[in-house]
Write a structure and sequence with these properties.
By secondary structure, the chain is α+β, with helices and mostly antiparallel strands. The longest helix is centred in the last third of the chain and has 23 residues. The protein is elongated, with a radius of gyration of 21 Å.
Length: about 190
């Protein structure tokens, strides 16, 4: 029905790697794949194996669950979009630090895949949307910090030189040219 792989981390995983919960839901225990380092797995590539797998009004939705958290939707594939690289953005939850009673099964991170109605799913892949928002926030913070070093305060306003955006952007470009990893620091 579908296949998955973790970019730069795995070969395609067989559907048998997932535990089938029922006819329309599957779970992947991340301990099977990476143990406790699940949060280092940033993306999942999911793909339909043929255009005959799903009815036109259905999709495969991807959910993630960190230990102690609820499942959160991250994205989907369907016949019109048969493959996608979906950012996982694992939920953070303070209850992850729970002390477990002796002999109890450890909490694990999981990826869930579920057949759902296309119309019931958000239009955007939420993981991608969150990643774009966080990237914009980091770039904006970089600009603000740069502007602060050249500004003066007049009342409740910051006053900056008129060419501040051009100066910041030139510095941003120069750093990116000198250090190929510079831009990667702005991504998750």
């Amino acid at each position: 029905m579908f296949g998955v792989l973790f970019p730069n981390r795995s070969f395609p995983l067989a559907l048998s790697t997932f535990a089938q919960v029922d006819d329309h839901r599957w779970l992947l225990d991340m301990n099977y794949f990476v143990g406790e380092a699940y949060d280092q797995v940033k993306d999942i590539c999911i793909f339909l194996l043929s255009d005959q797998v799903l009815p036109a009004d259905k999709a495969l939705a991807v959910y993630v669950q960190s230990p102690g958290s609820a499942f959160e939707y991250r994205g989907a594939v369907h016949n019109a979009c048969p493959s996608a690289v979906i950012p996982l953005l694992w939920p953070t939850n303070p209850s992850q630090m729970l002390l477990m009673p002796p002999g109890s099964a450890p909490l694990t991170a999981q990826i869930g895949v579920s057949v759902e109605d296309v119309s019931s799913l958000p239009l955007l892949n939420l993981g991608q949307q969150k990643r774009v928002e966080e990237l914009a926030m980091k770039v904006g913070e970089n600009l603000f910090n740069f502007m602060q070093s050249f500004c003066t305060v007049e009342g409740d306003k910051l006053v900056v030189p008129m060419d501040i955006l051009n100066r910041w952007f030139k510095k941003f470009q120069d750093k990116a040219k000198l250090d190929p990893e510079y831009l990667n620091r702005f991504t998750l």
